[in-house]
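Bug #77: duplicate submission created two jobs. Keeping one. Sequence:
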Amino acid sequence: MSQSSTNIVAKKMVDFMESASWIRKMFEEGAVLKAKFGADKVCDFSLGNPDLPPPASFQKTLETVAADRSPGVHSYMPNAGLLDVRSRIATQVNRDQQVELGAEEIIMTCGAAGGLNIIFKSLLNLNEEIIVPTPYFVEYGFYVDNHGGKLVPVKSKSDFSLDIETIENAINNKTKAVLLNSPNNPSGAIYSKKELVALAKLLTRASDYFSRPIFLISDEPYRRLVFTGSTVPPILKFYPNSIVTTSFSKDLSIPGERIGYVAVHPEISHKTPLLGALTLANRILGFVNAPALMQRVVGKVLDANVDIGVYQRRRDCLAEILKEAGYAFTVPQGAFYFFPRTPIPDDTKFVRMLQKERILTVPGTGFGAPGHFRIAFCVDDEIIERSKEGFIRTMEMVKK
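Kept job's structure:
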């Protein structure tokens, strides 16, 4: 970037652009490869962009809601969202999280990203810290920075489960919250009930020690994308000072529609001012309110879901390919990602080696976990099958 540009663009943004998401970098490089060799010759596993169509009920409801000509249907609304939609979502949250909350504890948001931003805006003072286990979604650092905070990554165990002792060692007088993502992007891991109960006990002790609440924030856009034999334990059930944010991007395959919500535990500390802050943050961050049309649609299809069987079939197929090729990996319990170990220490170099086979993945360095790489298997089955020889050849090249 030229010197004149750096005088115009904020230095922080210049720095961010230099270290911007590896996911987008690989996606963009994939576009170059596709233009050169043809899209059917490239195996692009770089972007977690769900490829399944939305459920039929979503499309039907969308058409019905869009046809509504009622006066004021496109008007401003309360910043927290439409009350009837929030009431229906509260009923679903109560079932999923095993708590009893009402519409007032639900804030409709512009996706889970919007949800995280209003949470951080509401909670963080300058230089306060958010602890996150690795690996983690790279955008978290940007979201926390948006509101003057500091993201503090801590290592997880080798199977991506929580290391409670490491989290405890990271807690200090600047810690405001611990942030979880389960099922996890990029590992596909689901934190168990045992882990969450242990974390809740730790946060309760730490909150008592510092005489103020340390919050637990759970980012759950993949909650409904879980495979046979796996379940996602209810965060809100285990810890009263907890907040959940999620979106409909993955379970309805509508990431471009930017619709989600925040659910606040009914017994959370300082609930009234916190709910007020979340609602105000929705407005002053420029979201104003979540998209009205999408609120009305998702409120009527809360039990709909994409065909998880398709993702499970792809997971199993890719697991066989990686196993045959000799990669070390943990089978994902949910979401649509593998996060294998790289056979050489330099994960960026290894991803470049795969790229020579026209296989696009993302280095684990981008997720705070060097020595791994992410494979997003939300792609056509044919792409997964076509990648087999490239994964094998790259591993053989490493072993020479």
